[in-house]
Amino acid sequence: MSNAESSALNARYGIPDQLSFKDVPGGLIVAEVSNAHATATIALQGAHLMTWAPKGAQPVIWLSKDAKLAPGKSIRGGVPICWPWFGPHATEPTFPGHGFARTVPWDLVETQKLGNGATRLVFRIQFSDATRAQWPHASELEIHFVVGPTLDIDLVTRNTGSKPITIGDALHTYFEVGDVRQVKLHGLDDCPYIDKVDGGKSKQQTGQVTIAGEVDRIYLQSTADCVIEDPLMKRSIRIAKKGSSSTVVWNPGVEKAEKMGDLGKDGYLNMLCVESTNAADDVVELAPGAEHHLWVRYSVEALG
């Protein structure tokens, strides 16, 4: 990426006093949003939202202090996009886990200042010979962000071909917490889940979710709002969604975190992934001409 590209983006898509584009060390271009409601940063590679914070408030989206910003590499933290499959590929173990969407370039196709002062950005994935070798299906993928009093994200898949396609996807969101060992996650009571830390055993959630070590679970029949209750930060983060019937809850725990290299010292204590997904059996079948929306809204509420 070059200064000329970021200059061209500023000329075409920049919004005075709201949205600008800059080069960052490592070779990526980042959109920087700052409006009356919030601030956010989005890398054009992966259309990867890295940060979001309501004005005058603590960050809601967690980004590792040791995140590597480099072409072709996934960014640790933020909102990685998993598409067109979740987890390992069903038949090709050499294909990247969670698909290729989070590590390839995306095109910015629209920006807009909304009537309430929020900022809207629309990105569309760039397909290539390399991606088509892994996903030889006629399709389009867009992501729509609205950065305002809430953060709204809409991941839109369109089947532009003549045959049905099946996708898995996720917004692999890292939320910032004061101490993950003290938070309570509401909204998954009674949901069955697959416990990947315990060999993929099927279990049932009773009550709220708490984190006492490594957690990697796919909750099924999950459509209700999830709420992260955070006593240290004196807030709750509400996760509302549509187009998703599964939720992944993930924290690597101390031992796995130390081996990851880009999570930062004790970074696992300050993040919790609550991912709105179409995972496991909750995949999406799209008829020719159909489209699917995986939509989320993140909002913050003060703890009384």
In words, what does this structure look like?
This protein is mainly beta. It has one domain (3-302): Distorted Sandwich (Beta-galactosidase, Chain A, domain 5). It contains three helices and 22 strands. It has helices at 3-13, 129-134, 253-260, and strands at residues 19-24, 28-34, 38-43, 48-54, 81-82, 106-113, 119-125, 139-147, 151-159, 165-167, 169-171, 174-176, 184-186, 192-195, 201-204, 215-220, 226-230, 235-242, 246-251, 271-278, 284-286, 291-302. The longest helix has 11 residues, at 3-13. It is globular. The mean pLDDT is 96.
Summarize the structure.
The protein is mostly beta strands and 304 residues long.
Q: What is the fold named in CATH at topology level? A: Beta-galactosidase, Chain A, domain 5
What would you call the shape?
A: globular
Give the name of the CATH architecture. Distorted Sandwich
Order of helices and strands: HEEEEEEEHEEEEEEEEEEEEHEEE
Distance between the termini: 46 Å
Count of domains = 1
Gyration radius over CA: 19 Å
Largest sheet: 8 strands, antiparallel
- Helix/strand/pairing category: mainly beta
If helices are DSSP runs of H or I spanning 4 or more residues, what is the number of helices?
Answer: 3
How many E strands?
A: 22
Please report which band the strand proportion falls in: under 5%, 5-15%, 15-25%, 25-35%, 35-45% or over 45%.
35-45%
Give unreliable regions as ranges.
none
Describe the SSE topology.
Blueprint: H1 3-13, E1 19-24, E2 28-34, E3 38-43, E4 48-54, E5 81-82, E6 106-113, E7 119-125, H2 129-134, E8 139-147, E9 151-159, E10 165-167, E11 169-171, E12 174-176, E13 184-186, E14 192-195, E15 201-204, E16 215-220, E17 226-230, E18 235-242, E19 246-251, H3 253-260, E20 271-278, E21 284-286, E22 291-302
Antiparallel strand pairs: 1-2, 2-3, 3-4, 5-11, 6-7, 7-8, 8-9, 9-22, 10-21, 11-20, 12-20, 13-17, 14-15, 14-16, 16-19, 17-18, 18-22, 19-20
